[in-house]
Amino acid sequence: MGHSSHEFGTPVALVVGKADEGLNTLRITFQDTDGAVEMRLEGRVAGPWASELDRVWLETASRLASRKLIIDLHNVTYADASGKDVLRKIYAQTRAAFITNTPWARFLAEEVSATAVQNVNEGD
Predict the structure, then answer these.
(1) How far apart are CA 98 and CA 23, in angstroms?
(2) What is the structure's pLDDT at 82?
(3) N or C: which end of the chain has fewer CB within 10 A?
């Protein structure tokens, strides 16, 4: 699986892990849009998948340049403390926009963005 070739402009899907059930995996897909990069997360942002998201983000962050990051959370089924920490880090670095369409995804986006804002000194 070629994790190192993230070509913006073409959808790149990274299916992380291959658990017996689809419920225990994380799928990370990047899509280039006008002036933005969308990172779609599907599944669980937890445990080893949170570490994998962090690794993929470190590889991808420098390729954003001045484009906006959009994080699509509507297919995320669960996020543990480590998963929320990775999302907070990404948000703190990018002030990403979140796409949500369920109460749980909205709650996750609000929790991640509110905590990140509290942890980063702004307005100094």
Answers:
(1) 22
(2) 96
(3) C
Q: 3-state class of 46 per DSSP? A: coil
Q: What pairs with residue 78 in β-bridges?
A: 44
- What CA–CA distances, in Å, run from 31 to 6, 34, 36, 38, 93? 10, 10, 9, 5, 19
Q: Is 63 helix (H, G, I), strand (E, B) or coil?
A: helix
Please state whether the predicted TM-score (pTM) of the whole model is above 0.85. no
> Is residue 65 very low, low, confident or very high in pLDDT (cuts 50, 70, 90)?
confident
Q: Is the pLDDT of residue 23 over 70?
A: no
Tokens, residue 64: 């954003």
Residues 24 and 49: their CA atoms lie apart, in Å, by: 9
Please write the tens of the pLDDT for every residue from 69-95.
999 999 999 999 999 999 999 999 999
Query: How many residues are present in the chain?
Result: 124
Which amino acid is present at 48? P
In this structure, what token pair is assigned to residue 98?
């979140």
